[in-house]
Amino acid sequence: MTDQNKIPQATAKRLPLYYRFLNNLHIQGKLRVSSKELSDAVKVDSATIRRDFSYFGALGKKGYGYNVEYLLGFFRKTLDQDETTRVALIGVGNLGTAFLHYNFTKNNNTKIEMAFDKDPNKIGGEIGGVPIYDIDELERKMDRISAAILTVPVSEAQGITDRLVTSGVKGVLNFTPARITVPEGVRVHHIDLAVELQSLVYFMKHYPLDIDDE
Ligand SMILES: NC(=O)c1ccc[n+]([C@@H]2O[C@H](COP(=O)([O-])OP(=O)(O)OC[C@H]3O[C@@H](n4cnc5c(N)ncnc54)[C@H](O)[C@@H]3O)[C@@H](O)[C@H]2O)c1
């Protein structure tokens, strides 16, 4: 097994991107891929790709590129593709409902197994094949769930997070604007579309891609 500690975090973050693209190539029967092709597809410059891949012991050959099968084998092991991570979603509102409809299992190894809400009209229902339980039953229902998606109102975020942590959750994908606090050993990734949009607009203004406009 490869020593994952040797891979820098920035590289590790790109692994799922690479994996998804290579898996599609593999399905199409492609045996090799050039760093240029990869770069165009995943929007990472080819120098970075070459550096990333050198950590995996995959050195591209000039005029040949990278062996798709070898890379996929490596990524599967590193990303533990064989083992599905069980995920719970808390808050089946606008955002939560959209996530439940989205099939996360199509391309990777995560699966939303269950959802929770406090609205009696939603409890007992099902969206995208995922059962919706009463939030009061969180501790009782959570079985081998290691990650959670948080799509509740901001005021509920910390309280729910505390309960998730007590139930053994080790990672939270936080869509609420709340800056939640967790004990050491629990990872929180915060996703804010407003920030992403602002950043896009900033780059559009200050780093325009269309050189004719300059
Ligand atoms: N990160 C982003 O880019 C982004 C974008 C839009 C919304 N949001 C945030 O995502 C969250 C959800 O937004 P939304 O538009 O889906 O809201 P929503 O009001 O449609 O949904 C919230 C859901 O949470 C449920 N809920 C409330 N309290 C609960 C509790 N204690 N336990 C379990 N469920 C509970 C409600 O019944 C409802 O179904 C909000 O915090 C919002 O600010 C984030």
Automatic annotation (TrEMBL):
Q: Binding of NAD(+): at which residues?
A: G91, V92, G93, N94, L95, G96
Gene3D superfamilies to which the protein is assigned, alphabetical: NAD(P)-binding Rossmann-like Domain, Winged helix-like DNA-binding domain superfamily/Winged helix DNA-binding domain
Its assembly, as annotated, is: Homodimer.
Tell me which residues form the DNA-binding region.
Answer: 17-56
Q: What does this protein do?
A: Modulates transcription in response to changes in cellular NADH/NAD(+) redox state.
Tree of life domain: Bacteria
Which named protein is this?
Redox-sensing transcriptional repressor Rex
Q: Is Nuclease found in the keyword set?
A: no
Identify the InterPro entries for this entry.
Answer: CoA-bd, NAD(P)-bd_dom_sf, Rex_bacilli-type, Rex_DNA-bd_C_dom, Tscrpt_rep_Rex, WH-like_DNA-bd_sf, WH_DNA-bd_sf
User: Cross-referenced Pfam families, in alphabetical order?
Assistant: CoA_binding, Put_DNA-bind_N
Query: Where can this protein be found?
Result: Cytoplasm
Q: Kindly state which keywords UniProt assigns to this record, in alphabetical order.
A: Cytoplasm, DNA-binding, NAD, Repressor, Transcription, Transcription regulation
**Domain annotation CoA-binding: ranges:** 80-179
Q: To which protein family does this belong?
A: Belongs to the transcriptional regulatory Rex family.
Please tell me the species this chain comes from. Answer: Aquibacillus albus
